[in-house]
Task: inverse folding
């Protein structure tokens, strides 16, 4: 028990970085992840440092804390605790791909909390992680989203967006 894994990979989103970044937030994932309906306990809509929210997707209940959220740098880091299985961090960083789209770098660092979590992490190898990111890329593309996203108001755009980055 207490297996740990760390994986980093990238996926492509056909949107400007300031829009793509918002897809990896509590309200943003609602737009492309089936069953993603976070219960935000604090921190507005879940896009603030220190925000706390709960998800339950396919019976995998998790508690999330926004450890860092920098809309200007297009970087977020979340602590994720699934008490029955595993805990760790998820970090997301969005940057321009130079062609009008975005390369999103995702890092998962997880530690098993139980035997079940240990078994899950044994299967969550680099190939499974790459497959997860490929699925995310497809799900975002298939969601056929329009930008700006509906939960972003003119006053909520990042400084990076207003600076034309």
Result:
């Amino acid at each position: 028990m207490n297996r740990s894994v760390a994986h980093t990979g990238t996926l492509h989103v056909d949107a400007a970085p300031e829009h793509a970044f918002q897809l990896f937030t509590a309200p943003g994932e609602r737009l492309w992840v089936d069953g993603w309906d976070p219960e935000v306990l604090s921190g507005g809509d879940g896009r603030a440092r220190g925000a706390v929210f709960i998800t339950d997707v396919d019976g995998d209940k998790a508690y999330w804390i926004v450890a860092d959220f920098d809309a200007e740098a297009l970087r977020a880091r979340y602590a994720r605790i699934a008490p029955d299985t595993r805990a760790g961090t998820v970090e997301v960083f969005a940057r321009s791909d130079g062609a009008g789209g975005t390369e999103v770098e995702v890092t998962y660092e997880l530690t098993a909390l139980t035997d079940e979590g240990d078994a899950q992490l044994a299967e969550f190898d680099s190939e499974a992680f790459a497959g997860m990111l490929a699925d995310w890329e497809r799900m975002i593309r298939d969601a056929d989203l329009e930008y700006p996203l509906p939960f972003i108001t003119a006053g909520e755009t990042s400084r990076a967006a207003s600076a034309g980055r």
